[in-house]
TrEMBL record:
The lineage of its organism: Bacteria, Pseudomonadati, Pseudomonadota, Betaproteobacteria, Burkholderiales. It comes from the Bacteria. This is DUF1799 domain-containing protein. InterPro entries: Phage_TLS_TfmB. Pfam families: DUF1799.
Length: 116
């Protein structure tokens, strides 16, 4: 099972504070509720989803974020970054469409969690 041995790296650090200060954003808004509660429970990852998980995890800092008077809103992943990550991870070209669609499912759920 993956997840049991990994920890969430979604945390407020000095770099995040420095980026938020000039924009007047509370950095707590940019940290997911799951991370605030200590991280998600362990989970089972089916082998056919491993590539998509690795791509999604590698893109964890590639979110498009709108910042305004109401705070921060996560729009979704930067798809050009997803493409680069797939190439760097060596995802075979014939599997890239399938992996991309799986990443989009995770992205849709991630947007819900991050904007909750």
């Amino acid at each position: 099972m993956l997840g049991a041995e990994t920890s969430i790296h979604d945390e407020i650090d000095d770099d995040l504070r420095a980026q938020c200060a000039p924009l007047g954003i509370d950095p707590v808004q940019l940290v997911s509720q799951i991370a605030k509660e200590g991280g998600p429970p362990p989970f089972e990852l089916w082998p056919e989803h491993l590539d998509a998980y690795e791509v999604f995890f590698a893109c964890r800092r590639q979110w498009r974020v709108e910042v305004g008077m109401g705070g921060a809103y996560f729009q979704g992943l930067d798809f050009s970054a997803v493409d680069v990550v797939m190439k760097h991870l060596g995802i075979p070209r014939k599997r890239q469409r399938e992996v991309f669609l799986q990443v989009q499912v995770m992205e849709d759920e991630g947007v819900k969690v991050l904007n909750a």
